[in-house]
Amino acid sequence: MRPARFTDLVTDLAKNTPGCTRVQTLAEVGDTKHPRGLAITTSVGETRWQFMGQLPDGAKHDGFTDQPVTGSPAPAGPAPQATDAPEAWLAALVSHAESPEVAAVERWSTRQGARKGHVGVTVKFHDGSKVFARKL
Fold first, then answer.
1. Which of 43, 87, 114, 118 has a CB 3.0–4.6 Å from the CB of 82, allowing a cystine?
2. Across residues 68-90, what is the average pLDDT?
3. pTM of the full predicted structure?
4. Between helices 86-96 and 3-15, what is the axis angle to 10°?
């Protein structure tokens, strides 16, 4: 899944999640430095996310079609709570959707050897692509 389609997915999920009060693209909030991403507001406040993508191994930008490839969804886990830390909230939002395109969701701050202050989520898809959601 490419970042543009991931942006649409997260926008739809967030808008339909209790406790989420606003979802805007980074462009809509005046961020012209980051081409893809969202500003998501919950009761905790606004969090801005930059989305970057990685194509499947061996794929080239020219000719790559972003066609859905499905498989077993990543484990759902609990639903996102408005009071969750932003990284936990985004990871729960994506995994709880049980999208058949999402193979795995990994929080950066909880993985082994995590760097302090390095907050984000890696979403792996069944087509071999990845989206990196970095908290700005």
1. 43
2. 93
3. 0.94
4. 90
